[in-house]
Amino acid sequence: MFSRRDFLRTASGAALAVSASSSLVSWAAESSHLAIPGKEDLIIRSYRFFDLETPVEFFNTWLTPAQHFFVRNHMHEPSTLEASSLHLSISGEVEKPFTINLADLTKLEAHAIVNTLECAGNGRAFQTPKVPGVQWQKGAVSTGRFSGPRLRDLLERAGVKSSGKHVMFRGLDEVPGKVPPFIRSIPIEKAMDPDTLVATQLNGAPLPRHNGFPARAMVPGWIGAASCKWLTEIKVLDKEFEGNFMSPGYRMPNQPVKPGEAVKPEDTHPVTTLNVKSLITAPLDGSTARARALDIKGVAWAGEADVTKVEISTDGGTSWKAAELGKDRSRYAWRMFEYKWKAPKAGDYTILSRATDSQGRIQPATPVWNPSGYLNNAIDQVKIHVQA
Amino acid sequence: MFKHNANYYFGLSILFCALSYAQTPSPSELPEGPMQAKAVTACTECHEARIIVQQRLSKAAWTKEVDKMTKWGAVVEPQDRDTLIDYLSGNFPVDKAEYVAERSRGPVAGVKKK
Q1: I want to staple A241 with a disulfide (CB 3.0 to 4.6 A). Which of A106, A185, B10, B14 is the partner?
Q2: From B15, B23, B54, residue closest to A45, measured CB to CB
Q3: How far apart are the first and last CA of chain A?
Q4: What does the DSSP 8-state code read for residue A69?
């Protein structure tokens, strides 16, 4: 079959051969942006393979539309995605391993959750000193209604043995070079949670291909890396999966470390749940307001915990006022917030937002540095100019 | 239904690959220098230059990256390693101005939306 990579190779030769005289090429050249089917107006952190960040202005709805839902890939997307040929195997420490095709998977009882999915590296670009990795700023996060069968239902059908302690996911993504495959595992307790899904739908439609069509794990409240895309294998293990993306990847120091300090692997633990965090989505950073009366808006989330409070400061953090939380809510989903403010006079202002959650966690003033720049949940800030 | 969607997306992706490939910055966006050609062959076989040019790292951090990527299949001859590290850390040091990423296109007129 003609794969995407074959196509790109061919296209690269073709593009050289036809030069700019081709109407196709000249049409494309008139555009100021790269076109990515199904993904509009996203910040391109990487094009081959896709890592696409959502600009915060698109977080103005509780559910993020599919075309604005961020994309994080570790590898090349599967060259071909034929729904009819897909099979998902459940094996390992189980009594009755089995394989299920997509048609049968979609016949199983579906469960829906609204989940705020965030890449562990969101906000990495704001770490000091800088750390290597995709330089995500604010928008490696989105919220969607995911639905599909419970992972637990599949595991119970297979009959998990008492030796089964972790559940490993493998996707169909294609590994370049000698790069270790993107395989990770979650503990059996989270796998058996009734809200952990094999999701086939996002916001009532089939998953977009860049977000894992036709099926992905959906591990709510946890870092995005837990929710393996293009799922093809579920394997029950007697211990945590050993591989690059479990260790040294996706681990945090057990104790706070000084910025820039090296950390020994044995002094780390896997990154699992998301932190309490908020983002200001309006007004936009660097914008000019024409009137002094402003609606300060944003979103706040807390992984497996609930957001209990969002506070706004317009005086650099000296005083804080509670924002109003939006009505839309669901476990694992962000809350929208709004705070009506009138600037005392024209001038430059810094607006801060700070969320608190049901576990008593509160956003720190500055990022908590770690060698891979994970879970940056520092207080958000935007700088604006008020004209009138 | 799924098959339809997969084909739909595949068809669209063919169209858009054709339209967008010409716009994809070529690997030559890596800056000129003694190791430019080596960086193109060693690094961009697996990922594009964007992943490199957005980094702002110390020489020590670049060294770790080059060694990790070599382990992962990047072809860097031993005699080129130090020069490649110098090239990357010289062009993408911690104090270089922030990389500004572009956006993907918004809705395209005349193209059927799903």
Answers
A1: A185
A2: B54
A3: 62
A4: S
Question: What are the pLDDT digits (tens) for A90-123?
Answer: 999 999 999 999 999 999 999 999 999 999 999 9
For residue B57, what is the nearest residue in chain A, using CA coordinates? A130
Q: What are phi and psi of A384, to 5 degrees?
A: -135, 165
What is the side-by-side order of every strand in the sheet holding A43-46? A43-46, A51-53, A71-72
Q: Using CA atoms of A239, A240, A244, A250 in order, give the dihedral in degrees to the nearest 10.
A: -160
d(CA A49, CA B49): 11
> What is the predicted ipTM?
0.87
Task: Kindly report, residue by residue over A149-180, the tens digit of the pLDDT.
Answer: 999 999 999 999 999 999 999 999 999 989 99
Selected residues 49-108 of chain B with any CB under 8 Å from a CB in chain A = 50-51, 54-58, 61, 64-65, 71-74, 94, 98-99, 101-108
Q: Could you give the CA distance from residue A224 to residue A240 in angstroms, rounded to a whole number?
A: 18
CB-CB neighbors (< 8 A) of A24 in chain B = 18-19, 22
Strands in A150-292 per DSSP E = 166-171, 183-187, 197-199, 201-202, 205-206, 216-218, 231-237, 251-253, 268-270, 277-282, 288-289
Q: How far is A178 from chain B (nearest CA, A)?
A: 4
- Cβ contact (<8 Å) for A213 and B108? no
Q: Which fold has domain B26-91?
A: Cytochrome Bc1 Complex; Chain D, domain 2 (1.10.760)
Beta-carbon separation of B102 and A34 below 8 A: yes
Contact criterion met (CB below 8 Å) for A143 and A117: yes
* B14 confidence band (pLDDT: 50, 70, 90): very low
Domain annotation for chain A: domains and CATH numbers = 71-270 (3.90.420.10), 277-386 (2.60.40.650)
Distance CA A217, CA A232 (A): 10
Average per-residue pLDDT for chain A: 91
Task: Select from A48, A106, A131 the Cβ nearest to the Cβ of B48.
Answer: A48
Q: What is the pLDDT of residue B9?
A: 47
The pTM assigned to this predicted structure is 0.88
Chain A residues near residue B22 by CB distance under 8 angstroms: 15, 24-25, 28-29
